């Protein structure tokens, strides 16, 4: 965590996202969607980007972020 990273909320997990799996760095109940800001319960987390280390609430948010990062 650096000075630009917000402090986690109570019960917010901190994860390291890998290809097809993640590692819990700090236990918690949810992570925050990088696009919508919604809380995502860990048991519902299915979409993330290991390169950007971001979680997404669903396929719409993941696609929106991919499009935004890959526009020319």
Task: Describe the protein's architecture and organization.
This protein is of the alpha+beta class and 72 residues long. Helices cover 15% and strands 29% of the residues. The chain is built from 1 helix and 6 strands; from the N terminus they run E-E-E-E-E-E-H. The chain has one helix spanning 59-69, and strands at residues 14-17, 22-26, 30-32, 39-41, 47-49, 54-56. The chain is globular, with a radius of gyration of 12 Å. The mean pLDDT is 92.
H/E series: EEEEEEH
Please bin the fraction of helical residues: 10-25%
For the largest sheet, list the strands in their spatial order: 1-2
Number of strands: 6
Low-pLDDT sequence parts: none
Distance between the termini: 31 Å
Mean pLDDT: 92
Task: Please report which band the strand proportion falls in: under 5%, 5-15%, 15-25%, 25-35%, 35-45% or over 45%.
Answer: 25-35%
Shape: globular
Category from helices, strands and their pairing: alpha+beta
Helix tally equals: 1
Main sheet, how many strands, which sense, barrel? Answer: 2 strands, antiparallel
Task: Tell me the Rg in angstroms.
Answer: 12 Å
How would the blueprint of this fold be written?
Elements: E1 14-17, E2 22-26, E3 30-32, E4 39-41, E5 47-49, E6 54-56, H1 59-69
Antiparallel strand pairs: 1-2, 3-4, 5-6
What's the gist of this structure?
This protein is an alpha+beta fold. The protein has one helix spanning 59-69, and strands at residues 14-17, 22-26, 30-32, 39-41, 47-49, 54-56.
